Amino acid sequence: MTIDVKPTASHFINGEYIEGGTEDLPVIYPYTGEVVATLKLADDALVDQAVAAAKAAQPAWAAMSGVERGRILRRAADIMRERNRELSEIETMDTGKPLQETLVADAASGAEALEYFGGLAASLGGEHIQLGDDFAYTRREALGVCVGIGAWNYPIQIASWKSAPALACGNTMVFKPSETTPLSALKLAEILIEAGAPAGVFNVVQGKGAVGSRLVTHPDVAKVSLTGSVPTGRKVYAAAAEGLRHVTMELGGKSPLVIFDDANIENAVSAAINANFYSSGQICSNGTRVFVQKGIKEAFLSRLAERLKGVKMGDPMDEEVNFGPMVSEQQISIVEGYQAKAQAEGARLISGGKRLDGPGYWMEPTVYADVADDMTIAKEEIFGPVMSVLDFETEEEAIKRANATEFGLAAGVFTNDLSRGHRVAAAFEAGTTWINTYNLTPVEVPFGGSKMSGVGRENGRAAIEHYSEMKTVYVAMGDTEAPF
Ligand code: NDP
Fold first, then answer.
1. How confident is residue 245, by pLDDT bands cut at 50, 70 and 90?
2. Percent of the chain, pLDDT > 90?
3. Does ligand 1 come within 6 angstroms of the Cβ of 369?
4. How many CB atoms lie within 10 A of CB 23?
5. Average pLDDT over residues 211-233
6. Please, which pLDDT band fits residue 358 given cuts at 50, 70 and 90?
7. How far does residue 233's CA lie from ligand 1's centre (Å)?
8. Has 250 been annotated as catalytic?
9. Is a pLDDT exceeding 80 seen at residue 1?
10. Which of 12, 301, 367, 376 has the fewest Cβ atoms nearer than 10 Å?
């Protein structure tokens, strides 16, 4: 089944849909490989128009009370929930992810972000510092125009995770979705207007790297938040630094999931499945290096093989389907390249391992065992349904090997030893860690990476720090002294 996902127009600027731009941008449904809509890439004039709209709208938006801004965001959350099915179908058509997932993980997560930050908006403030008779206070102020740039795996979630804290703090935003998934951010823009956001508060322009680059270096932009790969993150961070702009970088990972022999194996297998095959493995925080303690290795692998029989591929719009195609020909070719390397470098194939015939971009859920730390699949982010199982003997060894990567996005540990769980979580060099679960990212909890995986945090109160700045106001109660 396909649905009509053609948007009213390609861009959303200053409260309305706008058509125009340069090249065509085809939107492909990954299940069938068909073009389901054709948009246009923005030209420089449209990018400048979007930034100008955001700049013009920002002072009045920041001047509104937090209660008023929060009410609009919470109303947008309600509208998003009411339209969850429509938004989920659009997301499925854009990404290929099964409706079973998009119904619960995409617009639903976006609505939570709007609700959470809408709730915080009224209580953002500073502190009072008494200095004898004098005193000082701090004000939390908006940064100005923020730019959001998204990846293709969670399009509306990323747009919402960025815009909700930005708007709560009194900023306005220009958002550029990934060229691969341009549709749902337009819906968010529409919903914010319907919820009462003034024109220009949230704008969407379509484009590839060149549009992103123009936004990042625009003199009227105060902050850039990117979700993307490490190579893009490097470029965007450097370009933003030129103008000393604030940044949030949510980048890639090669995260470890360490399973000790005292763990509940069934739960550990569930976590390994979620951490490698949800969204066909196209999740930044995935635990793609599954370290299993030697004593339970065979039991773990045999239970995993058993559970993989439950995979149901097929029409992503069928709610029984629990595994969808990959997002694009480009991404599946990258993953095919890693499969070839894994097999050439001697990883033991437990299941899957190949691309299925089209239409669409189908990669089997794949598990390799006996993976060594120096194999390519253990070192590089694959961003597809490929799990590497590595074995280890001691806790010390597991921590050392888990941390032996330039990435530091996430990490998980499974154990029934309470002290060990906390000890290992503390030892992980990663921004987001889990004990006895994996990949849960509720909006109340800060999310982000360390090392090459990122800068800053999304979600939780922590995100407020990254979308606002402090102003100090010193108040003198007496005379002003001077040496002469
Ligand atoms: P890319 O890094 O290829 O692209 C990310 C975004 O940046 C896209 O919108 C892209 O545009 C844009 N872009 C590319 N070049 C530039 C530039 N020079 N200046 C400004 N913007 C630019 O990532 P993918 O879209 O392929 O997404 C996959 C990656 O995202 C993975 O590495 C994954 O780990 C990471 N990711 C991280 C998450 C996190 O929260 N830490 C969450 C989800 C994904 P376009 O693609 O349209 O050309």
1. very high
2. 99
3. no
4. 11
5. 98
6. confident
7. 8
8. yes
9. no
10. 376
pTM of the model: 0.97
Q: CB under 8 Å, gap of 24 or more: what pairs does 477-481 form?
A: 477/133, 477/134, 477/135, 478/133, 478/134
Segment 272-282, tens digit of pLDDT:
999 999 999 99
Report the distance separating Cα 342 and Cα 349, nearest Å.
Answer: 9
- Say how far apart CA 427 and CA 403 lie, in whole Å: 9
251 touches ligand 1 (CB under 6 Å)? yes
All domains in the chain, ordered by first residue: 11-251 (3.40.605.10), 256-435 (3.40.309.10)
Say how many C-beta atoms besides its own lie within 10 A of residue 231's C-beta: 10
How many residues make up the chain in this entry? 484
CB distance 106 to 156 below 8 Å: yes
Cα 151 to ligand 1 centre (Å): 4
Q: What is the spatial distance between Cα 22 and Cα 207, in angstroms, rounded to a whole number?
A: 9
For residue 18, give the H/E element and its range.
strand 16-18
| SS3 state at 58 | helix
Residue 457: helix, strand or coil by DSSP? coil
How far apart, in Å, are the Cα atoms of 178 and each of 41, 50, 210? 11, 17, 12
C-alpha span between 200 and 104 (Å, rounded): 29
What is the whole-number distance in angstroms between the Cα of residue 452 and the centre of ligand 1? 14
- The CA distance from 368 to 340, in Å, is 12
Q: Any idea what DSSP says for residue 309?
A: T
